[in-house]
Sequence to fold (381 residues):
Amino acid sequence: MTVPGTETMPDTALASLAADEARAAAIDARVRGVVRDDVLAMRAYHAPRGDGMLKLDAMENPYPLPEDLRARIGAAAASAPINRYPDATAEALKQSLRESFALGDGVDLVLGNGSDELIAMLTALVARPGATIVAPEPSFVMYRVSAAIANLRYVGVPLADDFALDVDAMRAAIARERPALVWLAFPNNPTGNLFDTAAIEAIVREAPGIVAIDEAYYAFANRSFILRARDFDNVIVVRTVSKIGMAALRLGYAVGDPGWMRELDKLRPPYNVGTLTQVVAPILLAETALLESQAKAIVDERERLHAALAALPRVRAFPSRANFVLARFADANATFEHLRRAGILVKNMHGTHPALAQCLRITVGTIEDNDRVLAALGPRP
Ligand SMILES: Cc1ncc(COP(=O)(O)O)c(C=O)c1O
Fold:
């Protein structure tokens, strides 16, 4: 039988096509023979590139680096010893983080290649047979994904209708599951709200294991547990520099009591933070005035975007303490497509969780970026 489309192919090309197919089938058989069934059934994390589009789907900082900083970073990168492995302890970078956030001597830091890596490491840390991980839902998907990769039981506890923590449900889950690890994103992604501090403290008191407070959006929230990590025996604060303008550097940091950090550090791949990150991050972290002014501009714009979205007919915008706004539309898929055709990429949350039905998550951009979003969504002439 002739395969359609191959009728005019020479015999050598046909033979090589058949060889390619045989090889693909052989590899497929081997893959299925060794790769875990649950991994075979998974889908890889999809991060759209958004080439040429206004990218408002990933909570990035919208501001490019000022010219003078670029020059300084360029010079620092040029003299970095690229032929050598990075400093495995990244001491200078840790010191710069300590100074930036006035961390006391009583805590230690563990660095990750983005906080995504720290989420995987914290999950691996507690991956005893039978261990359980609890998180409110909807929240950051990597808590669930990392638990699945580590073959751990994961229990999602629904948030209340206003996206607040359902403290009774969380307490019941903690009493029932005795979780080794509880995740609390503060503020929460994708809902944008801050959980109540007293509710978090109650959970920390009752949790038998680690409570990891993920402060990816701390810069826009004006609230943090980072200086309180030592007030509790079981709190680890996880943060990232991704949302404050350094997403490309892939740098996350966990802060907690040395007793926890010593164990977590054992799971860290030895050279997980590259030399360029170790060289560049301290230069940017020292620019406190710049970082603060950008965060303030983003917070101001968040409030404007939120108010303008809330004023649109048939739109409900949820209050946010992060650098994005979650909003419910009459038809999220249609609005997502409409924005895409206007060259704007946002995150369509519809279908990811029942509480997020008809919701889009829109990253706060520059004034011009947000004007573009609002012009695309506003009443058209
Ligand atoms: C709550 C939360 N934690 C962690 C991350 C991951 O950040 P990183 O870029 O440091 O891996 C994100 C990214 O969006 C997030 O929303």
Remarks:
- The radius of gyration is 23 Å.
- DSSP finds 13 helices and 13 strands in the chain.
- The chain has a mean pLDDT of 96.
- Residues 59, 114-116, 140, 185, 189, 214, 216, 240, 242, 247, 252 surround pyridoxal-5'-phosphate (CB under 6 Å).
